[in-house]
Amino acid sequence: MSKILNKRAYIYIGIAVVMLSFTGCKVPGIVEREANKEVPEGYANAPQDTVNAAKIKWKDYFTDPNLNNLIDLALQNNQELNITLQEIRIARSEVKIRKGEYLPFVGLKAGAGVDKIARYTSRGASEATTDIEPGREMPDPLQDYMVGAYASWEIDVWGKLHNAKKAAVSRYLASVEGKNFVVTNLIAEIANSYYELLALDNQLAILERNIAIQDNAFKIVKLQKESARVTELAVKRFEAQLLKTKSLQYNVKQQIVETENRINFLVGRFPQHVERSTEAFTDFTFGDIHSGIPAQLLENRPDVRQAELELAAAKLDVKVAKAKFYPSLGISAGVGYRAFDPSYLIKPESLLYSIAGDLAAPLINRNAIKASYSGANAKQIQAVYNYERTILNAYIEVANQLSKIDNLEKSYDLKGREVEALTQSVKISNDLFSSARADYMEVLMTQRDALESRFELIETKMQQMSAFVNVYRALGGGWE
Asked: What's the CA gap between 84 and 180, in Å, rounded?
């Protein structure tokens, strides 16, 4: 008889497994799209070789010791970078959580209680007639003591829990790449601000030299007015020019303060003087830029690597969501001792144990699972587009900076020649004015043009240095 019951039990279990598997296999279709990793073979007007500036350490790429000290300080104190480091810790904790979900849960528990049953109830009457020992009723009130261990484990048949852990690992690695991207941008931002500060220092020095020249010219024109060689109008125009140049000093000084404080904020300190080079800004030079080949962006750019890892995590999320349609198998077990008297806990008769397995699958009203699956698929498609966009943006950034370096080099040469010509014209105009062969307006216009050209030369040099910094960042340098 028992054999027949066992056979029936196996038959019922088999039918249940087949039905659950059948209902779980009806998974809605999804839209699949693979990421396009194709990039051009090279950059326009750049040599196609594998030598890449991104592999140079930032301490070797930037040779100014004052700038390197600022970068070192920022990598320790910058608040945004420290916030990102905490995000990495959060992602690492998520990995541990996911890893623990597919391992068995084991715990210990103990308990004690008391239960008083009313005598004139069906349960109270039945317990009163039950003797534990001859001539003794069941204790009333009934105490309950228990100590034991329990365990539960979901068998990861479809890889749902393992894929969830892998997705968490990918997101952890993506957070690390996110930190590297923050480091790259931080170094570039400090370097750009530092070179801007040097440019402002040089512009201030130019203003001071021009003020001295204009002040001397103002004194001369006042003497000429006393000798009736010029009118009061000429004196006032020279005075106005001198006052305008003096007022420009304070605009530049304010920009210097703001740039210094931008650097102080990046390095995580309150406003103070920023140590910097006293070398003439126009004397700064940089070597050849080796851009490598575009395919290296997939390896060197932290944001590209981050997008790739986030795409991998999104694909795993789709597998996790798909596994929810299939039956889940769980096992639970427990062992311990239980009795109404503590002295009975050590007796073999108080031993209890249990083991059970359960198989469950969604059958009706699976809308929530379908919505989760559809959302995971949409996020995976979204991650594909984000990855492709990141690659495209990386290539365009490098191409723009390489073109900028080339064009600014030509522009700077022409600007230098313009400054040289206007500097000579200032001396010539002053000589002609002294001999009454040029009027004061020619002198004023020449001085103004010469000042503007010097400012523009410094501005062009600053743009050159900025392109030198930004191409390093665009290639993915600075984080290693």
From this structure: 10
Give pLDDT tens digits for 339-374: 888 888 888 888 888 998 888 877 776 888 889 999
Q: Is the peptide bond before 141 cis (omega within 30 degrees of 0)?
A: yes
Secondary structure of the chain as H, E, C letters: CHHHHHHHHHHHHHHHHHHHHHHHCCCCCCCCCCCCCCCCCCCCCCCCCCCEHHHCCHHHHCCCHHHHHHHHHHHHHCHHHHHHHHHHHHHHHHHHHHHHHCCCEEEEEEEEEEECCCCCCHHHHHHHCCEEECCEECCCCEEEEEEEEEEEEEECCCCHHHHHHHHHHHHHHHHHHHHHHHHHHHHHHHHHHHHHHHHHHHHHHHHHHHHHHHHHHHHHHHHHHHCCCCCHHHHHHHHHHHHHHHHHHHHHHHHHHHHHHHHHHHCCCCCCCCCCCCCCHHHCCCCCCCECCHHHHHHHCHHHHHHHHHHHHHHHHHHHHHHCCCCEEEEEEEEEEEECCHHHCCCHHHEEEEEEEEEECCCCCCHHHHHHHHHHHHHHHHHHHHHHHHHHHHHHHHHHHHHHHHHHHHHHHHHHHHHHHHHHHHHHHHHHHHCCCCCHHHHHHHHHHHHHHHHHHHHHHHHHHHHHHHHHHHHCCCCC
Are 96 and 166 contacting, i.e. CB atoms less than 8 angstroms apart? no
Parallel, antiparallel or unpaired: strands 142-155 and 136-137: unpaired
Distance CA 127, CA 294 (A): 84
Domains and CATH numbers, the chain: 32-102+182-325+364-475 (1.20.1600.10), 104-155+327-360 (2.20.200.10)
Cα gap 328→24, rounded to integer Å: 10
Beta-strand relationship, 131-133 and 105-115: unpaired
Query: In sequence order, what are the residues at sequence separation of 6 or more whose Cβ sits closer than 8 angstroms to the Cβ of residue 333?
Result: 150, 151, 152, 353, 354, 355, 356
CA 159 – CA 30 distance, rounded (Å) = 19
Question: CA nearest 90: which of 12, 176, 149, 7?
Answer: 176
Taking the C-alpha atoms of residue 333 and residue 125, their distance in angstroms, rounded to an integer, is 34
Q: What is the band of 440 on the pLDDT scale with cuts at 50, 70, 90?
A: confident
User: Residue with structure tokens 């997705």?
Assistant: 167
Amino acid present at 211: I
Q: pLDDT tens, 45-88?
A: 788 788 999 999 999 999 899 999 999 999 999 999 999 999 99
Average predicted confidence (pLDDT) for the chain: 86
Which amino acid makes up residue 127? E
